[in-house]
Amino acid sequence: MSVIVSCAVTGAIHVPSLSPHLPVTPEQIAEQAIGAAEAGAAILHLHARDPETGQPTADPEVFERFVPHIAERTDAVINITTGGGHGMSLDERLAAARRFQPELCSLNMGSMNFGIFGMLDRIDTFQHPWEPEYLEMTRDYIFRNTFADIEQIVGELGSAGTRFEFECYDVGHLYNLAHFADRGVVEPPFFVQAIFGILGGQGPHPENLLHFKALADKLLGDDYVLSVLGAGRHQMPLATMSAILGGNVRVGLEDSVYLEKGRLASSNAEQVAKITRILGELSLQPATPAEARERLALNRRR
């Protein structure tokens, strides 16, 4: 079976001072998303940033400046975040998804400590005043996704036909997904994005991926599609392991700004090209957007 490659284009974790290649403006986000699709990504996971400062924003007017352009230039599945960025309210996080009603949205499956303050030690000079404050605040920050929040998101967006990338940062989040599945709040196939290496979530160890998959098999049976992302330097090893285990993969500058040790990725497309090359070495092929839509039971929307 082919492997679904997702690309998370810019995210809300990294600050511009970490890499000059992180897309910030709507034009850069569109260009890099289109390049990732041309390199083999079937799904494009999208956040927005303030064009002047690079700070994560939930403003749907900013999304408006790149989402339609990407939709016109690619056939890739457009996946709009509901996680937004640190410190955003639920209404802010949902603003873009409400505007565009995409075929796929990300959905974090639980509240958690979400520490990215460790990046402070990797930056000597900051480009913007907001950056050190943004990173430091996560030392005393809980990223909120309560049961009520999840029910609201699924009820509101799901009723419009949107399906979800269920982001699971720990096995407790997998149990939360099983809870909603048992209640019939969400319906299969479940697109499970297993996330490893975020401080506050499950560690990026191979045995953790094996445990996560075994537990998902137990809780969800044949009703789920597994995808894996590793944060930072764990991106490519864990993606490769996922493919070997029969799963799918996610790469992109949201998850790592590097291509390999000591070398910054020049673009999202460069990371997609690398993982598709690795898939080829494993005698696997990247899925087309049409194949991804079929496997995830998406309702194509433009």
UniProtKB/TrEMBL annotation:
Cofactor needs: Zn(2+)
InterPro entries (alphabetical): Aldolase_TIM, BKACE
Classification via Gene3D superfamilies: Aldolase class I
Keywords noted in UniProt: Metal-binding, Transferase, Zinc
Protein name: 3-keto-5-aminohexanoate cleavage protein
Organism of derivation: Solirubrobacter deserti
Lineage of the species this protein comes from: Bacteria, Bacillati, Actinomycetota, Thermoleophilia, Solirubrobacterales
